[in-house]
């Protein structure tokens, strides 16, 4: 419990020590901005000031009411964005089943480069896209990028050779780089800290829902009699058209933040900001701050998440682009492979929703849940690699359970939402994590060697090793955050009083990083 002495030793926003410290800070940090410019930069600061002056506390019923409204208006659009981006980037998977490789006259590992070049574009667009979300209205940025990437997808059938398709896939990755990193940031803008895990895993589960939808679309296309164009072209035309239509919805209906939400009353906007502020990480800041980049570069969390992302996405680079080929290699027909791949997406959905509910319902179980998901993948990859080839159903079930890989990665994004303060630092940490995501996805497809068909031993072994490395990184991340919490409690006292809580919230609303905010504690 905090004592007066402990409270007086806290250095940071809201204390006398912090006031003197602010005078020595870099000019770009809080304390050197006038009130009006700071309110413009820090989204929701005015609403937070109203809540503070009135001594407002959000009741459980108010919390639920606002969460339900956000769930109704915002969550479906987050889900659709994630699902459509997954469908559009993995349309390659279904195109491969219906002769895309032959139609483009590809040889050797050229088809694998279509998967890799997408993530090279993703690396290039990763941080610039996040910068756009930071500085401009989220709905408009998402709408424009969705319109452009939908156009790119719908023009893919016009590509007639390797070079043209490589260019097409590069720009698709460049535009789609806004989606999952952006959803990570936007979830922390709209939802209270305890709500973030479940909502994040709901929208991330739309990778699985999209996989099921894509499987049925591909199955239906396979039954077209006397097609006027190559079957693989239908996939890109249909999915591109859906994305273009959805961009119109984003333009008109997706607000920048709770402050701009037309579906919230003025009182509810204040409550919505206060809910998010309770995480002590702020809402959104529109000013780029170099010192927060420096904080991110020296933060062990940044690099543990980076390495874990590389390790996690090597298996993902194999599974997301070649799942139907792997299943077909187990001994199933082309049409059977499309349906059985949809079943693996069902496993992914159930694992994500179950993990999200556990992390919402029970406190500080994020790291443990990540580890359990990773261990499931290790066992599944071992079975897929080492079981005899004639046990095709056993190996298929093992393959399905590799979809638990999404649990660890999705919860690592929750770690960013819940544990990284300072909006520039949060966007940069997200960008570094997704750089690792891209590196893994670029490398992954090249472990699947045509010469090893149908068992693909090198590919499944790479999955097995990747899962082990990811597990070690996630456990190290949890150990570091636990040690940091214990160290802060010992040196500065525990955050138990309402006054300490309010000071922590105010520090977060002024865009301090978790390093600067002495009232912040990591959520495990």
Structure characterization notes:
The protein is an all-alpha fold and 524 residues long. The chain has two domains: 54-281, MFS general substrate transporter like domains (Growth Hormone, Chain: A, Up-down Bundle); 284-523, Growth Hormone, Chain: A. Helices cover 73% and strands 1% of the residues. It has 24 helices and two strands. The chain has helices spanning 4-9, 16-23, 35-41, 45-53, 60-73, 75-97, 100-103, 110-135, 138-154, 162-176, 179-190, 196-204, 206-221, 231-253, 266-277, 290-297, 300-329, 334-361, 366-386, 392-401, 405-419, 423-443, 457-492, 498-509, and strands at 42-43, 284-285. The chain has a two-stranded antiparallel ribbon with strand order 1-2. InterPro entries: MFS, MFS_trans_sf. Residues 22-35 have a biased composition (Basic and acidic residues). Residues 1-40 are annotated as: Disordered.
Spell out the key features of this protein.
single chain, 524 residues, mainly alpha, Growth Hormone, Chain: A, 2 domains, two-stranded antiparallel sheet, 24 helices, 73% helix, globular, disordered N terminus, transport, transmembrane
Compute the gyration radius: what is it?
A: 24 Å
- Terminal residue distance: 20 Å
The CATH class of the largest domain turns out to be: Mainly Alpha
Average pLDDT over all residues: 86
Summing up helix and strand content along with how strands pair, one would put the structural category as: mainly alpha
Described by the principal axes of the CA atoms, the overall outline is globular
Helix content: over 70%
Strand composition percent:
under 5%
Oligomerization state of this entry?
A: single chain
Q: Helix count? A: 24
CATH architecture of the largest domain: Up-down Bundle
> Stretches where pLDDT falls below 50 for ≥5 residues?
1-33
CATH fold-level name of the largest domain: Growth Hormone, Chain: A
Number of strand elements = 2
What is the string of helix and strand elements? HHHEHHHHHHHHHHHHEHHHHHHHHH
CATH superfamily of the largest domain: MFS general substrate transporter like domains
Any idea how many domains? 2
Question: How do the strands line up in the largest sheet?
Answer: 1-2
Keywords: Membrane, Transmembrane, Transmembrane helix, Transport
Membrane topology: Multi-pass membrane protein
Transmembrane segments: 111-129, 141-164, 170-192, 201-222, 234-254, 339-360, 367-387, 399-416, 428-449, 461-483
GO cellular component, one term: membrane
């Amino acid at each position: 419990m905090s004592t007066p002495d402990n409270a007086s030793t806290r250095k940071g926003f809201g204390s006398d020590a912090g006031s003197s410290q602010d005078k020595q800070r870099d000019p770009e940090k809080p304390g050197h901005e006038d009130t009006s410019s700071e309110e413009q930069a820090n989204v929701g600061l005015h609403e937070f000031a109203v809540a503070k002056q009135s001594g407002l506390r959000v009741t459980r019923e108010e919390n639920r009411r606002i969460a339900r409204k956000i769930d109704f208006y915002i969550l479906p659009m987050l889900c659709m964005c994630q699902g459509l981006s997954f469908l559009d980037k993995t349309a390659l998977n279904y195109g491969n089943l219906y002769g895309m490789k032959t139609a483009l006259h590809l040889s050797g590992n050229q088809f694998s480069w279509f998967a890799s070049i997408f993530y090279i574009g993703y690396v290039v667009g990763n941080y610039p896209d996040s910068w756009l979300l930071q500085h401009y209205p989220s709905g408009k940025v998402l709408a424009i990028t969705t319109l452009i990437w939908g156009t790119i997808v719908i023009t893919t059938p016009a590509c007639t050779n390797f070079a043209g398709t490589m260019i097409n896939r590069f720009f698709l990755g460049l535009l789609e780089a806004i989606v999952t990193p952006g959803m990570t940031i936007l979830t922390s803008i709209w939802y209270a800290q305890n709500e973030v895990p479940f909502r994040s895993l709901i929208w991330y589960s739309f990778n699985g829902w999209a996989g099921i939808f894509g499987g049925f679309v591909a199955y239906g296309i396979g039954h077209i009699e006397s097609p006027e164009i190559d079957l693989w072209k239908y996939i890109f035309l249909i999915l591109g058209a859906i994305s273009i239509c959805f961009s119109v919805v984003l333009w008109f209906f997706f607000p920048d933040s709770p402050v701009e939400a037309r579906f919230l009353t003025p009182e509810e906007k204040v409550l919505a900001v206060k809910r998010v502020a309770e995480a002590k990480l702020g809402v959104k800041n529109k000013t780029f701050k170099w010192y927060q980049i420096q904080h991110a570069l020296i933060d062990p969390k940044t690099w543990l998440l980076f390495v874990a992302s590389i390790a996690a996405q090597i298996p993902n680079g194999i599974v997301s682009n070649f799942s139907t080929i792997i299943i077909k290699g187990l001994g199933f027909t082309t049409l059977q492979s499309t349906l059985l791949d949809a079943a693996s997406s069902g496993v992914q959905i159930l694992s994500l929703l179950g993990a999200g509910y556990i992390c919402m319902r029970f406190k500080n179980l994020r790291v443990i849940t990540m580890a359990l998901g990773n261990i499931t993948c290790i066992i599944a990859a071992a079975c897929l690699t080492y079981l005899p080839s004639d046990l095709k159903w056993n190996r298929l079930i093992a393959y399905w359970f590799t979809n638990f890989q999404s649990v660890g990665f999705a919860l690592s994004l929750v770690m960013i939402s819940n544990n990284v303060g300072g909006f520039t630092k949060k966007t940069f940490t997200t960008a570094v994590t997704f750089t690792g995501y891209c590196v893994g996805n670029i490398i992954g497809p090249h472990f699947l060697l045509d010469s090893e068909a149908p068992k693909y031993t090198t590919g499944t072994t790479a999955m097995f090793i990747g899962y082990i490395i990811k597990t070690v990184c996630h456990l190290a991340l949890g150990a570091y955050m636990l040690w940091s919490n214990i160290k802060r409690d010992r040196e500065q006292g525990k955050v138990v009083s309402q006054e300490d809580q309010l000071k922590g919230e105010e520090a977060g609303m002024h865009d301090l990083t978790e390093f600067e905010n002495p009232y912040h504690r990591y959520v495990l």
